[in-house]
Amino acid sequence: MSDSKSKGYACPRCTVGRCTPRTTTFAEMYHGQLLSIPNVRSYICDVCHFAEYEQDKLEALWQELYGEDQVDDFQSVASQKRSSTFGGGSN
Domain holding 31: CATH number? Predict the structure, then answer.
């Protein structure tokens, strides 16, 4: 993570607030069951509370839980939780 990213950035949703690094709980319904992962590093807007999650960490956890064959399923769930600006546009 770059130093400028760790200090926060303009919120891509509301464009008023500032997204700063925090830990929060990732929660999403997946195949009718609640998937809840505590202490996930994220960037949360101080105005609208929009959250972007560190995608690589969630993907690694998903692979541990469900194996390689279900990574594509996770991509669709997690991509709804982040904008195209996450990660500075270059991964």
Answer: 3.10.20.860
